[in-house]
Amino acid sequence: MSTRKKLAITVAAVLLSACTGADSVVSNKRVDAALASGDPSGLQAEDRATLLQRATSKASAMRSRAQQVLSDIYNANGQVPNLSVSVGVNDNSAPGYFSNPIYSSGVTQAIPYIVSDDGTGIAAITELSGDTKTGRGMAYANDMLSWMSGTTREQQHLPLFTRAFTWLMTGQAGGTLPSTIKFSQSGYNSSTVRNFLTRLGKTATEIPGDGSATTCNIASSTNTCWQNADLLVFGESVPDSAGLRDLVQTYLKAGKAVMYMHSEWADPAGATHVLNGMGMKFGGYGGNYWASAPTYSVSAGRTAADSLARADTLAKLSTTLQLLAQDSYSKDFTTDTTAIDGVNLMLNEISAYETSGKNIFATSNTDLQRLLVLWADQWRPQFTYGQISRTNDAANFLRAYASDSWLAFNRSATTTNPHGQGDYMPVAAQQLATTSSYETIQLRLPQSGGITAIGRGAIPAKGAVIEIVNAPAGVSLGIQSSYVRATGNPIWDNNYPRPRRPNSWNLPLQSNVGNNFVSPFGGPLFLSYNGATAGQTVTLKIKGVIKYAHFDFSNGTPPQADLDAAMASLQRKDYGWSTAKFRSGEVQQTIDSASNSIGSFTPKQYVVDRFQRIVMDTNHIVSGYNDMPLSPMATSLCSSLSWDCTGGLHNPPGIQHFVSWIAACGDGCSGNPSDNNGWGLTPSWGWAHELGHNNVQRWMSILACVGECDNNTHSITAMLRGYALNGDDYNGSENTYHSKLYKNIQDSRATGKTGEALRADMQARLWTGDIGYADAQGPMLAVHMQLAFLYTKVRYGSARPTVDPTLEFMALLSKGARLIGSQWTTATAANYGMGRYPNNNISNEDLLYVLGSKIIGQDLRNIFSMYGIPLSANATNSISDLGLPLASQQFYALAYGKSNQLQTGQWLTLQSSTPAYPF
């Protein structure tokens, strides 16, 4: 090669190096600006590498620092201190046997210092850097300090505790403690601190308070005496106060040593805020008094290496970041979840910050979180949902998964995928114009706490601002997009059909400021609230949002203009969701589901007359809740029976939510919200079935009719009412199988058995079938209906049962069962047909019998025998004592498939014969 060519290559290399270096500087400047603002709009494609490199470097440094600190504490001149500890043992004579686990609030906020053999957090430490100093904190789930101050408990732990305490005070486990240590405490025993320091050979001085105060109140945000202390100690009795968490952080940022010692199962508010300020949290109910040794112990064989490995919480994130830097590799994330776990570690970390009201772009020591969020912003627009293969393109799959996970919602800007968000939000939504000026919205809070749709939606990557105009004193508010509990799982779903978590978490709303909210995926906005009184109102101002297909009948019929606008949005289908509100319920469903369900109905017919009236109201009638009025007959019966049928005991449950999109289990799931795989809001058997799970009453669960059977009593009654009021027939042929029940009676009697033998035969015939199938479950469910039909005949004198009295019988059963559960006494036992019972322990079968007999006014023992239901002597003798006439064996026959059409049946008498079934 000639000298000229060599020179040219050298010059080119120098120029390229200079250009690359210059580009790096420029890229880092853009990144620094985005890190300060949280706005990714100024970033460019080449900044993705910069963001990832800086995140990897930051994570590596934090990981190394945690290992360095623990290595220092665990290693005493090459000799590892005894790591064993056994706190929270089953010895209630010893102090501190109570325990509530303590963990880091996130993988970057504190270090697991001592972890039990089964992974329970026993102790944690933290470092928090201020402008010029580093404060340190240490917390134990048990009152270790009291044991180390001179007892006989856990003395093998003293060398390790001393090294940890020395690190807390000096930054080095082998450092030299000052001869005098000035301390203050709150919620803790001063003598215990003094005794421990004296045991170490140090002079302990408790600092005086401000002014004439004897001691310093370090839990008060106005104290200044804390500056004179070297050590600040908190216990679980620390009084809660506004800003206590931030106050503890102030201490740490100023370089103070902060210690917390716990000694009970509970997690008091003040103690919780102290731990939060240290980057830690309680693990919930401890229960160590009943726990096995691995929960509260570190075995004597534990090595320092093992303890270091348990504390290496950023190891999985390290694997994630290494893979994100690679453009191609093979990986099966279903079997090796390390990288996925690393993604989720930081998802939980960022969520913990935001749900506690912190903006990571305005919170110190959050550089790693910020870098990952901005990296996710840069990669998010690169993918198309439905076209990402987990098996054939692992690199882009992991990038998409991380981009969908590292989210920050309380800022003004983010990025989105220009091709839409799969079945969560259509691409057309991105073109919808959001409001540029504030509008005022007033929301009624229907209960003390919950979540409610506000009727406005967020557009992907378009920022909204929410202000609290007026809220009742003591009510806390939050905002989130969507109220769904299942979103699919890209690890198992084919080709990544939608964002892995498109709904936001809940962000606390601050007063007197504009609260920013932005989502890459958009969605209906919901207000969360706590500390309210039912009926109170909240006034908000909001901008940067849209109106969509929202139908709000929770306060009566809304203006026609609002309904027309919602219907127009529904028909355009340019927004992914529709929501509805009505008395006692709310619904969120996809726009296609809503469009298919509403059909030609008006909004009121669709929401109120069909779903609320048939599914919700029927459920509440049968459950005996007092939001449903009593008939004159029922009112009279309650009075004659001396039952309180309208008191607070019968208050309905809270607002029930329904989601039609993806079910958390199977095809449909109960809970709140109840959800299903796109059934749509209709008064169908399935919705009534899932809601029924939430409100199963004791009398519904008899013998084998439990689980997926008893809740169908709610479905049966909804189908009855739906047909009677609206002509809807979702009944199904065998859901209530009266003719099969009658066939069982016929077959049992054909055996020639009598008395108890006949009853036992019927029990085996009817109640031991596979209740997963309608032909076995249907006859069981018919039993409850037959008893209700008898009520209409006896109490109302009806030739044929009608719907309202039929449901009324069930409402009275529910009310009576609740009264027995809470207000039964030996003096009132006869009011419930339980005069022979020494207490209110009664089987469900007996409960149905005694209450049914009292409500109908006849002794039902012969009818229960006909159905094969066993009864105790206490039950039959209690009813005998009342002198009620014996009910004759009779049956209301209904044709197959017409169990919801009551007017089509006829009564049969079975007391002395078994007539042929008429249908």
Please, could you describe this protein's structure?
With 919 residues, this protein is of the alpha/beta class. The protein folds into four domains: 1-75 and 312-408, no CATH class; 81-302, no CATH class; 427-549, Sandwich (Jelly Rolls), CATH 2.60.120; 607-909, no CATH class. It contains 26 helices and 27 strands. A seven-stranded mixed sheet has the order 3-4-5-9-8-6-7, with helices on both faces. The chain has a six-stranded mixed sheet with strand order 20-21-22-23-25-24. Strand 3 (111-115) and strand 4 (121-129) form a beta hairpin. The chain is globular. It starts with a helix and ends in a 10-residue tail after the last strand. Residues 1-22 form the signal peptide. InterPro entries: IMPa_helical (IPR041549), IMPa_N_2 (IPR040711), Pep_M60_3 (IPR042279), Peptidase_M60_dom (IPR031161). Residues 449-769 form the Peptidase M60 domain. Pfam families: IMPa_helical (PF18642), IMPa_N_2 (PF18650). Keywords: Signal.
